[in-house]
Write a structure and sequence with these properties.
Blueprint (H helix, E strand, L loop, with lengths): L2 E4 L2 E4 L9 H11 L5 E9 L4 E9 L7 E5 L2 E5 L11 H5 L1 H12 L3 E5 L8 H5 L5 E7 L3 H10 L4 E3 L16 E5 L4 H8 L8 E11 L3 H11 L3 E15 L2 E12 L1
Parallel strand pairs: 2-3, 7-8, 7-10, 8-9, 10-11
Antiparallel strand pairs: 1-2, 3-4, 5-6, 11-13, 12-13
C-alpha cells in the first residue's frame, strides 16, 4: 500500500481488496504521524489538469487540503485536490539551478526565466531565490486554481492563467531560459513556445518528455525540425528514469540562438 506525504497531508492508494477498511486505515495513519492533519485516499488522476481525485479518510481539524510543502529547503503552497503536484520530481527541479547559473555567467548578466506550465511553481521557487543570477520570472498555468496559488507563491513576479501555446502573443521574447514540463506533449508544443525566447544570443530550453524507449532518436529528429529556423548550439536528450518497462522519462536541453 503506497503513500506520499505532501505537506500536512498523506495521500494513500488503497488496494481494492481492503477498500472497506479505508476509514480505519486513514485513522491509523493519522495517529501514527504527528505532523499530519489529514489523510486522503487517492482515487487516481482525472480531467484536463491531471488532478488527483481525493477522498478524505481522516482529519484532525476538518480543514481543507491546501497545505504548505517544503522541498529542498524551499516552501510553497499547494492543494493536491485542485492542482497537479508530484514530490517525486523534486531532484529534477533542483537540477535547473546549475543551468540558470551557467547561462547567467555565459551572458554576463542576470537572466529572465519563463515556465508556461508552472503548476504552483515548484520548479521556480528555488530559482526565484537566485537573485544574483535571475532577474524576472514569468509563470503561467492553464489551471486557474494553479494560477491562484502561483500568485501566493510568487509575489512580485509576472503570473498568469493562459494557454501556453498562445502565451508568446502577450509575452513575446520574454525569457532567456524556457522550462517546458508537459511530458506527454512537450515536443509537440515546442513550435508555439519559441516566440517566448529572446533573439540574438544563446538561450536555453529545458524540457521533459515521456517517450517510448526506442524512439529517442526519432524524438531528436522531431525537435531539430521544430528548431530549424534557429541556430542549434547543442541538443541533448537524457534518460532520467523508467516510466514503464518500455517507456522512458527524459530531459531535453537545447541551447539555441533565435535570429
Amino acid at each position: 500500500m503506497s503513500h506520499d506525504q505532501v505537506g500536512e497531508l498523506i495521500i494513500v492508494k488503497i488496494p481494492e481488496e481492503i477498500l472497506e477498511f479505508s476509514k480505519e486505515i486513514g485513522k491509523a495513519m493519522l495517529e501514527q504521524h504527528s505532523s499530519v492533519r489529514i489523510v486522503c485516499a487517492d482515487n487516481g488522476v482525472q480531467g484536463e489538469f491531471r488532478v488527483r481525485d481525493l477522498t478524505v479518510l481522516a482529519t484532525k481539524d476538518g480543514g481543507s487540503t491546501k497545505t504548505k510543502v517544503r522541498e529542498h529547503g524551499n516552501e510553497f503552497w499547494i492543494d493536491p485536490s485542485l492542482v497537479y503536484y508530484s514530490p517525486r520530481l523534486a531532484t529534477e527541479r533542483l537540477e535547473n539551478l546549475e543551468t540558470v547559473k551557467q547561462l547567467s555567467e555565459e551572458l554576463g548578466r542576470r537572466i529572465d526565466v519563463c515556465d508556461p506550465y508552472a503548476g504552483v511553481g515548484p520548479a521556480l521557487v528555488p530559482i526565484a531565490k537566485m537573485t544574483e543570477y535571475v532577474d524576472k520570472i514569468y509563470a503561467s498555468d492553464l489551471n486557474p486554481h494553479a494560477a491562484k496559488l502561483l500568485k501566493e507563491n510568487f509575489p512580485g513576479h509576472t503570473v498568469g492563467c493562459a494557454d501556453a501555446r498562445a502565451l508568446s502573443l502577450t509575452l513575446s521574447e520574454c525569457c532567456d531560459l524556457l522550462l517546458v514540463n508537459l511530458p506527454h506533449e512537450s515536443i509537440e508544443h515546442l513550435p508555439d513556445l519559441l516566440g517566448l525566447l529572446k533573439k540574438g544570443h544563446e538561450v536555453v530550453i529545458r524540457g521533459w518528455a515521456i517517450l517510448p524507449a526506442n524512439s529517442i532518436e526519432d524524438a531528436e529528429k522531431q525537435i531539430r525540425l521544430h528548431l530549424f529556423e534557429t541556430e542549434i548550439l547543442s541538443l541533448s536528450i537524457d534518460e532520467k528514469k523508467s516510466y514503464a518497462s518500455d517507456i522512458a522519462y527524459v530531459r531535453i536541453e537545447a541551447h539555441i540562438i533565435r535570429r
